[in-house]
Amino acid sequence: VAARIKERCAERDELVEKLETEKRKEFILSVEEIRAFLYKLKNGKDDNYLYRRGLINIFVKEIYLYDDRMTIFFHGSDKPIVVTDILLENAEEFFAGSECSYKKEVVSPNAHNSNIFQT
After folding, report:
1. Which of 26, 28, 52, 97 is the most buried (most CB within 10 A)?
2. Residue 70 burial (10 A CB sphere; 0-12, 13-18, 19+)
């Protein structure tokens, strides 16, 4: 009985140590920090590559490319957004006359191939 009690005390000490380790990992943001972050998102420059990349990292979970469509999964939602080739053609037409770097990022997938990009 004494051995089991000693064993349980050791388990408890180990669990308490693990709990303290997890508590140190906790990250709490203040209201001001959240406001500053949202302000930066709102006022970012869409011609800035790092800003656009940051938006993608924040909101986009996965992108699946197919021959005829692109499926996007966003963080916080299990419902995919399907972008068809008609929408992609409209986007290409929209950016055709501009010097914007968005058009450089439009990629056509290979036949019979789907690619997954995870952020």
Report:
1. 52
2. buried
